[in-house]
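Below is how a single chain appears once it has passed through the pipeline. First comes the sequence as given, then the structure the pipeline wrote out for it. We keep one example in the README because the format questions we get most often are answered faster by looking than by reading.
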Amino acid sequence: MDFNMLWQNTKDGKYNLYLVIGLGVILFIPFLGSVGLHDPWETHYGEVARSMLTRNDYIFPYWESGYFFSKPVLLMWMMAAGMNIFGVNEWGVRFFIAVLSILCMAITYWGVSRLINKRVGLLTTFVMTTSPFYLFLSKQAITDMPYVGNMTIGMIFLALGLIERDESVPSLKGRIILTVVTLLSTISQYALMINSGHMMKGLTQSAIVLIFAGLLAGYFAFTRKKQYEIFLFYGYIFIGFATLAKGVGGFAIPGAIWLLYILVTGDWGILRRAMLPIGVFVFGIIALPWYVTLLSFNGRDTEGFTFYGRFFVHDHFNRLASGVHGDRGSFEYFIQQLGFGMFPWSAIIPFAFVGILKERILEGAKEYRTMLLYTIWGVFAYIFFHLMITKFHHYIFPAVPGIALVVAIYIDKLLDDPERENWVTKALIFIFFIILARDIILDQRLLVNLFTYKYDRPFPSGVIELWKYIAIFTAGGALVIYFYVFKKQKFAIYSYMLTAFAFALFIVHVYFNLITPHYSQKYLFDTYYKMRRGNEPVAAYLMNWRGETFYSKNTVRQLKSNSETRSYADGPGRKFILVEASRYNSLKNSLSEQMRDKLRIVDRSSNKFYLTIVDPDAPSQKEKKPPEPTEHEKEKEIE
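Resulting structure:
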């Protein structure tokens, strides 16, 4: 294969967009609906979305027996739409997350190609997409991809509007597409409010709203005289979506990045060119209606919080300033998480940022201004999330797109001039690669901890053989060394990229699939539904992991005390009980003497949970006592 011709084709842009979309499909669509939802976040939000369908209320999120105010609504809307199409299952819950991820890839490639060049666009997308953070969060139905995906798309369009500044006349096709996007962005949520009874009712009033939205969308699209204005509208639309996905951070972080960019460049004219008054209006008609509705609502959640008290005070200000759940951590906390969450690119990051300082990023050309913007993006996001008191590993995900472009610029320069770096730099990159690879092999929790909860949770031993990691890292490293020794340095770079792709395939289609039975209750509920007769109940003993609520469709009985458990088990008929493995003996001891011998484990396929059954009609048996859990396994109940 002529690799020089291949890279020339990437520079020319031939087939690149198809490659990007194909990469996203290969990574994110297979097995998307065949592995269970992970506790506690996916199942928690999935149940809120399922309740929207059952209650026919898409405005006031609901969880179990009370309102749910902890997260914005966009994720739940995406899940509800998927479940409405595909059914209440994993495919429905995750489908639109994967679609957004692939759209983000396509827009990133297209935008960076216009701002810098096509090969850098392809490399940026490849680095971003093959980073474990992006891989895992594209297959997880939690708030991070709706937030970061929409923010990334919005930042691309704002950069096209404010840095590239294409002054050509927009085409009719472009105007029509903007009209349609604006209509879908507004009418869809207004229709939900009308349907749920939280806006004007009646055919006439609804028609007024829809006609007004249509006229407004057409006005925005057909009164723009320059293409960059069209791009700015898209930027404000997607920043609005990001705000619906995450809250204040959806617009505050992009706003802070652009403010820093203006301060560094001194280009205050951006404030005039940005069409801020009309931009804020476009942003507002998308991002604000749901928030305004919730702020005017007097309902309270199960802990007595109003929407303002829960969402803004507890989940915004307290997370930022005083700490809510999660970790704390010092400056190196997110350095460690980026090390694993962007592996193997993380071995290059320090040298890529040093290299970007050698570029003429303060010059006015659009490619250099784009490099500056993305450099500020990566650095600011890191500092901001470091300063937050509450820390989860995936909180640093918003920095990944900015860092990805910086790494892509570094690789692009190496492909043009493999000798630009001395052997010391290359040796250090390889050493960092070995150290990070060793840590991933020795502690397999490092990857699952990038996207889930309870970082001290024991990893299922023996599920993934270590030789699989070793084979990928050894083969990739050997190829890199071989080509460097024989002075074929471009091939060494290709080998490094191939290693990243092989590792990406491994973690999304092998690692993710194999660990899921230990992080999801789906498989235990599969057993329950196969074994139950009629409407035999299922209960959860001292558990609050959310999966029991989603997979039972909110019919699970929560056993919150030993006396309640004894009363439940003593009732007539068979009863199923979910229990954490470390609490099995406590469950057994909570039963009455005549029922203890009727308790047996029917599914112990998870290292975290057992599915048990109490069968009063079963013959007495001396069940082998499971091994006592280690101290490390004795985890506290999720609060």
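The longest strand covers residues 575-580.

See the next section for the split statistics.
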